[in-house]
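It is worth pausing here to work through a concrete case rather than discussing structure prediction in the abstract. The textbook approach is simple: state the sequence, then state the predicted structure, then interpret. We follow exactly that order.
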Amino acid sequence: MTPTITAFAQSPDRGRGLARDMAVRWALEEVGQPYDVRLLSFSAMKEPTHRAIQPFGQIPTYQEGDLTLFESGAIVLHIAERHAGLLPDDANGRSRAITWMFAAFSTVEPPIVERSMVQYLEHDKTWYEERLPLLDDRIHYRLGDLSNHLGGADWLDGAFSAGDLVMVAVLRRLGSLDILQKYPNLSAYVARGEARPAFKRAFAAQLAVFTATLTG
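Step two, the predicted structure:
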């Protein structure tokens, strides 16, 4: 059965591949699983119909038969466990890959997201100029540890896995900031992820939605 995911009809990321459905699209492309997409407006996301499958009124969701999931990390993990290609064959390797998924969302991403929220929502506040450097320091602290672990390796733990997919997706949220550029091995790591054919297909699919909003 072909799964259906939800995504923004008009994404605030303006086609940069940062919306939360990107990681899910990428995972599906990596394992060669066709999928359908149901596009939602911001108002439709808050309606009871959508909240029945996503209590917080967000995207993405994943529906396949009688299974409904939300939260991009949970969806990526489900895809990785059901299809070959995103988790190692050995039990210990699988557990380590899953650990890196949790590390990406729980340890590396929080200060990155907080900084973006401050930048967009608090730029006119009196504390903005003082708070931003503090958040940058928190990001550097996490990136320094991650950079030390990665070293000169291509991926976090041997072959590319769901852990790398999620970590690259998180690091891409730094966007055009020069923070990541201070860690050449992490910049190269993200570039390797973006060079994967599955990433390119997922990015193109998400970009096509944004492009359609400009021409439609």
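Step three, interpretation. Residues 91-121 form the longest helix (31 residues). The beta strands are 4-8, 36-40, 61-64, 67-70.
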